[in-house]
Automatic annotation (TrEMBL), chains A, B:
It comes from the Bacteria. Keywords: DNA-binding, Phosphoprotein. Residues 133-198 form the HTH luxR-type domain. This is LuxR family two component transcriptional regulator.
Length: 200, 200
DNA sequence: GTGCGAATGTGACAAGCGTCACCCGGGGGT
DNA sequence: ACCCCCGGGTGACGCTTGTCACATTCGCAC
C-alpha cells in the first residue's frame, strides 16, 4: 500500500486527483492540502510515503517543500505535478532531489504509474522535458533576475532603483544586460522570454 | 441519467475530473475532448445533455463554443469550469447564455451539484464572482484592447502600427487612452491590469 | 603589494514613450 | 446646408529606455 499526501491549491483539481488515485487498489490518499504550509504540517503529522504536489501554491511552493524534505532528510519521496513545462523548474526540482516531475497534460494514468515507480525508488521524469532541461542554462544572474521581475510588473527604472537602493543607471545597465543575454528587443519581451523558460 | 461531455486541455485534470464525475450514480461521462475543435465535433456527434468545459483551450475557447451552441440553438447546457476569477470572463459567458460558471478552486463536490442544477434548468454561478461581474464594466474599446494586447507582447508602437496599418502616432494615442482609463503608469501596468480583469 | 574581476555608478546619446492640443474628412441628425 | 461626432493623423514637449564607454570600489589570488 502506497500512502500518499496530495497538495494542490485548486480545490476542484485536488478533489478530482484524489478521487482518481483512490480508484487504485494499491494507493491510499491519507490526506490533502490546499497550500504549501498546510502541506508541510500534514507531511510531518501523517508521514506519508509519497508527497504529490503542485508547484505554484500560496505560502510554500512545491519546490520549497522538496528542498526542506531533502534538507531534513525525511524518508518521503516527492512528485511534482505541474502545468508548467519550464525547463528551469525541472532543473530546480531535480536539484531539490525530487523523485518525479510530471506535467498536468500527461495522461492521467501516468500519475499512478509514476507513484509506483517512485515508491520503488525509481524516478519518473517527463521525457521531453528531461531533454530540454540540461540543454539551455539560465544565463541570468541574481541581480538581473530580480530587476527583470520588477520591470515585468510595470515598474520604471527609477521605482526599481529606490526599491533596491541602487542607482537609476545601474538598474538600466542590468536591464540592458538581461535584454542582451536573452536576445530580446526590450524589457517586456525579455520578461516574457525569461518567464516562459522558468528563469523568472 | 445526466449525459455529459467533458472538455479540458490538461490531460491529467481531464482524466481526474472524468473519474470524479463517474463516481456519481446519476452522471454518465459520454466522452472527453482535449481541445475546442474536438469538443465541438463530439458535441454534435454525442448530443450530450451538458457540456462541461474549460475556457482556455487550443483551437476554440470554451466561451466560443458556448456562443456557437446558443447561435445554433442546440438543446445543450454549458457549464464553464475555469481557473480564472476574471469578472470579464463571467460576463462574456453569461452573454453567451451558459448555464453555469464555476472556479476550479471551488470544492469538487460543487461540480456534480452544479451539473444537476443546470440539468434541471437552473443556473449555477460562482457567488462571489457574480457580484463583481456587473460592478465594473470594461472601459476599453476595440482598438484600445487590440493595441494593448500587442503592446503587452513586447511590440513597440512602430511594430503595432505596421501590423494594423495605422500610424505610429495613432497607436501611441490609443495606448495613452488605455493607460489613462485604467489608471496605470505605463503600458506594462495597463496590460497587467486589463488582463487581470479579463478585459484582455 | 600588484593585478584581476565582480559589482555598482556616471554621463552621454539616440530612440522610444506618454501626453496634449489640434487638424482632417466623412457620416448622421436636424 | 449646417453642425457635430468619430476614427484617424500630426507635431511638439519632456520624460524614460536601451546602449556604451569609462570610472570607482572592494575583495581575493598570487
Amino acid at each position: 500500500m502506497i500512502r500518499v499526501l496530495l497538495a494542490e491549491d485548486q480545490a476542484m483539481v485536488r478533489g478530482a486527483l484524489s478521487a482518481l488515485l483512490n480508484l487504485e487498489s494499491d494507493i491510499e490518499v491519507l490526506g490533502t492540502a490546499a497550500d504549501g504550509e498546510i502541506a508541510w504540517r500534514e507531511l510531518q503529522r501523517l508521514k506519508p510515503d509519497v508527497l504529490v504536489t503542485d508547484i505554484e501554491m500560496p505560502g510554500l511552493t512545491g519546490l520549497e517543500i522538496a528542498q526542506r524534505v531533502r534538507r531534513q532528510e525525511l524518508p518521503i519521496k516527492v512528485i511534482i505535478v505541474t502545468t508548467f513545462a519550464r525547463p528551469g523548474f525541472l532543473r530546480r526540482a531535480l536539484d531539490a532531489g525530487v523523485g518525479g516531475y510530471l506535467l498536468k497534460d500527461a495522461p492521467a494514468e501516468n500519475l499512478a504509474e509514476a507513484l509506483r515507480t517512485v515508491h520503488r525508488g525509481g524516478r519518473a521524469i517527463d521525457p521531453q522535458l528531461a531533454l530540454e532541461a540540461w540543454s539551455e542554462a539560465d544565463p541570468l544572474n541574481d541581480r538581473e533576475r530580480q530587476v527583470l521581475r520588477l520591470a515585468g510588473e510595470g515598474q520604471s527604472a527609477n521605482d526599481i532603483a529606490t526599491q533596491l537602493n541602487l542607482s537609476h543607471g545601474t538598474i538600466r545597465n542590468y536591464l540592458s544586460e538581461a535584454i542582451g543575454k536573452l536576445g530580446a528587443a526590450n524589457r517586456i519581451e525579455a520578461y516574457r522570454l525569461a518567464r516562459q523558460k522558468g528563469w523568472l
